[in-house]
Design goal:
Largest sheet: none
Oligomer: single chain
Family: Belongs to the TsuA/YedE (TC 9.B.102) family.
Protein name: Sulphur transport domain-containing protein
Shape: globular
Subcellular location: Cell inner membrane
Main location: membrane
InterPro entries: Sulf_transp_TsuA/YedE (IPR007272)
Radius of gyration: 16 Å
Amino acid sequence: MTEFTPLVSFAGGTLIGLAAVLLMLSWGRIAGMTGILAGILPPFGSDMRWKASFLTGAVLAPLLYEATISDIAYQMPVSLEALIIGGVITGIGVTFGSGCTSGHGVCGLARFSRRSAVAVIMFMSFAFLTVFLTRHIF
């Protein structure tokens, strides 16, 4: 059973949107996590510092929240192998989709990108299908 957390989800979404807007205003860049992550891997680009800082904040902020004010019990209902397989499948989708959910869903839709709209429709459709299959069929 998935816990419904509307206030925490709203706060998280607000912070993601704020981070995307601030990144666009300050650096003129799109907050697509895949592109940012790729930017800190070799060969290194000239804008590696802000990308490393952005990713560090994206990792440390939830850890800080968990250590200080979280009252939500975290559970991992799947095996490590399933997480790895899911990560590989996601990586393939990101490669063929020319971006990830944050780049297309948060930033692309906000810029009224048709390509991002199609990408979001596709990955949300497959997400719904995956949840249905894993919860009701398998």
